[in-house]
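G., the chain you wanted modeled:
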Amino acid sequence: PLHPPRPWKDKFLCSARARFSEGMAYQRGWNRLQNSPHWKPLEAFAKDPMKLEFPFGTKVNSTAREDIRQICKHMGLNFRCIGGGSQKKIVALKLDIIRERKKAEEMALDAPRAAAGFYRGALNLLPEEERNKVNALFVQF
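Predicted structure as tokens:
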């Protein structure tokens, strides 16, 4: 070979590849995420059955957006970045609930009249915060 073997270089590259492939390139620590000012609002959003979107304003910088992304992943939430440059913002979403609602509405249109009536009746009888569960059950069966 033209170059002499460099075992330190091979060892460094292998450990760098291993660290990079373990997860996200800039994975935040659990304590850092929990101490983020965005943890508690996202935790409250995840528990609130009435809210399907939680927008963050344009004042959130790229570091904060990365914190929000990783918190969302830990909590099983979805997120979407909108805009660009100084107008870029991030929105936390509950896409599973949105998709279930849409699919349940589509299924109710094609379902037998009695099943669709039962579904709509259950939606009308239950309080707003419980309707997501009805959609999930209707889609499942």
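The first helix runs from residue 7 to 21.

Shout if anything looks off.
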